[in-house]
C-alpha cells in the first residue's frame, strides 16, 4: 500500500514551503510500506536555528491555509531538529549538523522518494537577479 493522495499533496505543500524559506536538501519519502503510523516524511535542513524555525513557521502557515493543523509539534524552541506531526505526514526540519549525524535519509533509503515540482526554484537572487545557482550560471554565459 502506498501513501494516500492527500498525504502526498500535504507533503508536497510542506516541501515547497520549506524550499520557499531556502531549506536545503528537501526530500519527500513515501514511508507507508515501512511504517503504519504515517504515510510520508518530509526532511529538510538549514544552516542555523533561526532558519530552521522560519522554515517550520512557513510550513505550518502553508498547511494551515490548506486546512491542516499539526497534532504535535516538537523541537521548535531549540531550533536544532523540529518535528511537525500531521498524522499522515511527519515533517523533520533539521539543523545541518543534526541532519548529517542522524542521517534519516540513509535510515529510510529503501523508501521511494516522491517527486516534487518546483523545488530549488526559490534560491537567493545573485547580483544579476538570477534565482537559482543554475540560473546564475546561465546568466553569466
Automatic annotation (TrEMBL):
Per the record's keyword annotation, is Transmembrane helix included, yes or no? no
- BP-aspect Gene Ontology terms: cytosolic ribosome assembly; negative regulation of ribosome biogenesis; negative regulation of translation
Q: Where in the cell is it found?
A: Cytoplasm
Q: Name one Pfam family in it.
A: RsfS
Renumbered to this chain, region (Disordered) spans 119-141
The UniProt entry's GO CC annotations, sorted and at most eight, read: cytoplasm
Q: Where is the composition biased (Low complexity)?
A: 123-134
Q: For this UniProt record, give its keywords in alphabetical order, as a comma-separated list.
A: Cytoplasm, Repressor, Translation regulation
**Molecular functions per Gene Ontology:** ribosomal large subunit binding
As for what it does, the entry says: Functions as a ribosomal silencing factor. Interacts with ribosomal protein uL14 (rplN), blocking formation of intersubunit bridge B8. Prevents association of the 30S and 50S ribosomal subunits and the formation of functional ribosomes, thus repressing translation.
**What subunit structure does UniProt give?**
Interacts with ribosomal protein uL14 (rplN).
Q: What is this protein called?
A: Ribosomal silencing factor RsfS
Q: Which organism is it from?
A: Rhodococcus wratislaviensis NBRC 100605
